[in-house]
Amino acid sequence: MTELRHDWTLxxxxxxxxxxxxxxxxxxxxxxxxxHQADAVQLCTLLSVKTGGxxxxxxxxxxxxxxxxxxxxxxxxxxxxxxxAARRARAVGATRLCMGAAWRxxxxxxxxxxxxxxxRGVRAEGLEACATLGMLDDEQARxxxxxxxxxYNHNLDTSEAFYGEVITTRTYRDRLDTLARVQKAGISxxxxxxxxxxxxxxDRAELLRTLAALDPHPGSVPINALVAVEGTPLEDRPPxxxxxxxxxxxxxxxxxxxxxxxxxxxxxxxxxxxQLLCFMAGANSIFxxxxxxxxxxxxxxxxxxxxxxxxxxxxxxxxxxxxTVQATRERGPRARARLPMVAE
Length: 344
Description:
- It is a single chain.
- By secondary structure, the protein is α/β, with parallel strands linked by helices.
- Helix content is 38%, strand content 13%.
- It has a single domain (10-328), classed as TIM Barrel (Alpha-Beta Barrel).
- The chain has twelve helices and ten strands.
């Protein structure tokens, strides 16, 4: 089995990233097959439970209150609406529901209690539950764990050196502190980044080095290509070359052998062939359904046809090699339950 390392240097990461593409893919494939079911892909559905009006100024985000985009703030979804979405996701084959709220910091009080009910409800429907709610304190992380949360998404986005070029309303340290609280609470980390924002190759390598330095490694590592949204500061950025995305996925796979590497935002702009190359590079998780948080995604039938053509099968729930995910299987509801409705 490939050694799990947390002490990669920037020079080592760049050397891997810059390998001839065929050599890079060969190495990534070997790592992937040593730790994962080679023909299986995790199917996740992403649901925005509270859209728009975020106080952050992330330069890529359509939900920021700082940007004039097509997104209008919406009320928080009701519990029954979320559970209906969970059942629809499960019916088409998804095994994880990822719930996103456009908050800088996770709120306290009734809104947070409502999220806890959503998590319990999603788990009771037989799905893994993931949430992205902004920054957390220790008490919030503990409550999320007690509710049965499988994973918490909190992306680093880019390197620490480039971070201030994209976001000014929080610091890199703020992000790392929340990651530490999530891990302390026993919740699996879902943490990755975005390419195509104007960063250098060293910035990309440093992002991956920082992720691989986390102990344990994140259970899921989303690799996103920028979707340039009109009205955001990054609206004029050129599209990412698919080969650059492939290199990031392959390098992430080699550095974090047991992590689920998720082909995330930007997948809708890729050809079938480019998506298959990403799978060959070690991607074994996708967002599956009609939408990401606010932007389009390949639809279910298109994804099914792609997976069938490639001979790929859906990964079973809780089949990730991440031991934290395995542990959460025993925490929280494991069968359907009658759950109280929580007021908005």
